[in-house]
Design brief:
two-stranded antiparallel sheet; Alkaline Phosphatase, subunit A; 2 domains; alpha/beta
């Protein structure tokens, strides 16, 4: 039975934000076997299998399917593609400098940019992890539903957003800033690691609402990223086990923000880390909320902060509303969205087979749509002009009665069966988090952070973060 927008029935919004994957790479083949039409008869903007990108010689490289049994399937595309502003321009426009006008991106630079990235990474003296045999054409590999059975089952069983774009065409921290505070304060790369703009956590606290930020097995990076969190009321900072306990006990906050494990052997799904571990995390988050006391009132958002240089065929639109009057780095004016990223909406109030988009002709869904939905649910003001203009997604909740089926029944979580090629080196976000934690101490204290920067390993960074964080780790 349907009964229109049921957002008022939601008491808990949970966001799991993973790392650096494009929509096509993770979900492009979701409905290919049915002509890109969902089980409910809705059109789906996925892959046909004929999409291509030119290589350095101009020859087309066609998109191909990553099947679960393929060599190194869960470590594709085999290396970390370029993901900053200039690399994204190269992928979208074929040049590191974006056109002055709002011209539509050609989306024809992915293979050539990956070839360039592999070239400088290969000559870096082993600093960058590259799976043996990786070539530029591998950027055109996209997973089949069989390879990602958990994410795919949730996308088919609830709602998939095939027009959800990252907020800015660049790397992680600016996009996470938009996801939590609807602005990056003009910043367009990861060199800026803290933001003084008001966040959703402070906003919720000001209005007497509860919130939580949960790292996977250590203090969450988000805690150190937004300066207003320290003084925000109504909040919980914890790990995934704390989130599980709150769900089981019926004490989930109104808004929960979940992070993966940032290490190179963790479950963030950042290229070229183990994608299968991320499938396990998605499974565990779903089973946690579905088995919790508040499942009927919970809306789970599974998304990715940015595309990470991975292939997508849909040009990001222009027409984005700048969040504020801050001048953007690299001359960027914040009127262009980033690349499409996978986003799945999960709730027992969502009909199966839903493909959800914002109304045609208007502003598309982006990371600030989550902020807008939270604001609509609890009558909160906007943080910036960007989330004020963003569409919410409460209209995806059309069922008057909560479903009781389990769309993951019978689904087996994949296992890569291969050691991580990045097991030794620390991840970029481990380095960021260790740097932020070290800033909490007076000069001369915990100088081991400097030693880490010189020659720290994945394990050493993980140990530092756990032992020096404000919460003492987990």
């Amino acid at each position: 039975m349907t009964n229109g927008n049921q957002l008022s029935a939601v008491e808990h919004v949970v966001v799991l934000m993973l790392e650096n994957r494009s929509f096509d790479q993770m979900l492009g083949f979701l409905y290919s076997d049915s002509g890109n039409v969902s089980s409910s008869g809705q059109p789906f903007e996925g892959l046909t299998g004929t999409e291509s990108n030119p290589d350095a010689t101009g020859q087309p490289v066609t998109v191909f399917r990553i099947e679960p049994g393929a060599p190194n399937a869960y470590f594709m595309p085999g290396a970390d593609p370029g993901e900053g502003y200039m690399a994204t321009n190269s992928q979208l426009f074929g040049s590191s400098a974006a056109p002055a006008s709002a011209a539509a991106p050609s989306m024809n630079g992915f293979v050539k940019d990956f070839a360039y990235t592999l070239g400088w990474q290969s000559s870096s003296g082993g600093h960058w992890s590259i799976v043996p045999g990786t070539v530029a054409n591998d950027i055109m590999g996209c997973y089949t539903p069989d390879a990602l059975p958990v994410l795919s089952a949730l996308a088919k069983g609830y709602a998939v957003c095939d027009h959800w774009f990252s907020s800015v065409p660049t790397e992680t921290l600016p996009n996470r800033a938009f996801a939590c505070s609807a602005t990056s304060q003009g910043h367009m790369d990861d060199k800026t690691r803290t933001f003084t703009s008001p966040s959703i956590f402070g906003l919720l606290g000001q209005h007497g609402l509860t919130w939580g930020i949960f790292g996977y097995d250590a203090e969450p990076l988000t805690r150190s990223t937004f300066t207003d969190i320290t003084g925000a009321t109504g909040g919980t900072i914890g790990t995934f086990s704390d989130f599980q306990a709150a769900a089981a006990g019926g004490t989930l906050p109104a808004f929960s923000f979940l992070e993966p494990a940032w290490s190179a052997t963790g479950n963030s799904q950042h290229p070229n880390y183990d994608v299968a571990l991320g499938e396990q995390l998605i499974h565990d988050v779903y089973e946690t909320v579905r088995g919790g006391a508040g499942w009927a009132q919970t809306l789970l958002v599974i998304t990715y902060d940015e595309h990470g240089g991975c292939y997508d065929h849909v040009p990001p639109p222009s027409g984005a509303v700048p969040p504020d009057n801050t001048a953007g780095e690299f001359g960027f004016d914040f009127t262009r969205f980033g690349v499409r990223v996978p986003t799945v909406l999960v709730s027992p109030l969502i009909a199966p087979g839903t493909v959800f988009r914002a109304p045609a002709g208007g502003t598309p869904l982006d990371h600030t749509s989550t902020l807008k939905t939270v604001q609509q649910r609890w009558g909160l003001p906007a943080l910036t002009a960007r989330d004020a203009a963003a569409p919410g997604f409460g209209d995806v909740l059309t069922l008057a009665a909560a479903r009781t089926d389990d769309v993951l029944a019978g689904v087996t979580v994949p296992v890569s069966g291969t050691p991580s090629p990045s097991a030794v080196a620390p991840s970029h976000l481990q380095e960021v988090q260790a740097d932020l934690i070290s800033r909490q101490y007076a000069a001369g204290q915990h100088n081991d952070a400097d030693a880490l920067a010189a020659h720290g390993t994945n394990a050493a960074y993980a140990s530092y973060i756990r032992s020096h964080s404000a919460t003492g780790g987990a």
